[in-house]
Amino acid sequence: MKISTRTRYGMRAILELACAYGAEPMQIKVIADRQKISNKYLEQLVAIIKSAGLVRSVRGPHGGYVLARDPAEIKLSEIFTVLEGQTLTVECVDNQEVCENSSDCITRKLWKQMNDAMLGVLENQTLQDLVKMTEKERMNYQI
Amino acid sequence: MKISTRTRYGMRAILELACAYGAEPMQIKVIADRQKISNKYLEQLVAIIKSAGLVRSVRGPHGGYVLARDPAEIKLSEIFTVLEGQTLTVECVDNQEVCENSSDCITRKLWKQMNDAMLGVLENQTLQDLVKMTEKERMNYQI
DNA sequence: ATAGAATACTACTAAATCAGTAGGAATATA
DNA sequence: TATATTCCTACTGATTTAGTAGTATTCTAT
Q1: Residues of chain A with pLDDT under 50
Q2: Residue A86, C-beta contacts closer than 8 angstroms, at least 6 positions apart
Q3: Is the four-CA dihedral B41, B88, A80, A60 of positive or negative sign?
Q4: Tag placement on chain B: N or C end, fewer CB within 10 Å?
Q5: Strand pairing category for A64-67 and A55-58
């Protein structure tokens, strides 16, 4: 059970944009270089994030991408869902109807516990929290 | 991000064996029928569980499988790991060396939180807990 | 105007994984 | 010896993943 590269790259990319919130648009190329991600692949990932309304784009020279909302207003769960899909463990957790036994399935209760445990982590943090951690990390590095 | 069918089926199968702990060996066929799982596929899954030492087998007529240890002594994390693999979110969480940036990677901290959240669920429950829930569920049904 | 910088769009692909199916070998029981 | 069961291995179609590739579109600056 792994988080896809798509989600890992996408999260790193949007964190870059969150760190640059309020500044000039940032280009795919810049993010790709910094994060060591394939330029072309990242293009597609950012397109996904954009179509979800999390970032806006500016075309042409000096263009790039900017975060669409304040980092404090973007929960990590929202980003994760866009990139990885809604299901965190098993489909029947979100959608009882996919299995007729779901109402009294014991293992489903287990998957739901795991699901909710992850969801708690993602719901209780925003991009702003990651930005702060990034800044703190950079300070440590400088000292 | 989904838990594989392998893990879901395998967990249901071992729960059947846990419910039958102390009784006669239970055959693949019986489990497969009850859980509506392909017989042949389940054979392979139980083989995985067996090679991990969680169940023992008895060949020939009246044979089948029995849980190798008391259900209370088998943590759910052990079963999950055998079926799904060690990684719950991202490899670098268990294995820092797979990425040179892991030491100051902010997103890794996030994946680790999610990882630990799930692990907490799996570490703090044993098969015995699922057996009890199963019995309770059956009682509700009878009333 | 036009060159160039950037995003936007669409199609293709190699590799891996998943969820099985299939068939027969080995072993124990009655 | 017939039968019930596990054991072992090989194959397969479908899907997903992590890209690569090429071109079209849009905006800016000169």
Answers
A1: none
A2: A94
A3: negative
A4: C
A5: antiparallel
The tens digit of pLDDT for each residue in B110-123 reads 999 999 999 999 99
Query: Sign of the C-alpha dihedral, residues A115, A117, A123, A129?
Result: negative
Tell me, what DSSP letter sits at residue A24? S
| Confidence (pTM) | 0.96
Amino acid B54 CA to nucleotide D1 C1' distance, rounded Å: 35
Q: B89-104 pLDDT, tens per residue?
A: 999 999 999 998 898 9
Report the DSSP beta bridge partners of residue A66. Answer: A56
Mean of pLDDT values over B52-63: 97
> What integer pLDDT is reported at residue A143 of this predicted model?
62
| DSSP conformation letters of B92-134 | HHH-GGG-TTGGG-HHHHHHHHHHHHHHHHHHT-BHHHHHHHH
* Chain A residues closer than 8 Å to B110 by CB: 11, 76, 121, 125, 130
Please give the Cα distance from B57 to B59 (Å, whole number). 6
Task: Give the closest-approach CA distance of A70 to chain B in angstroms.
Answer: 19
Domains of chain B in start order, with CATH, are: 5-142 (1.10.10.10)
Helix (H) or strand (E) holding A56, with range, is: strand A55-58
**Residue B88 pLDDT > 80:** yes
Predicted pLDDT at B138: 87
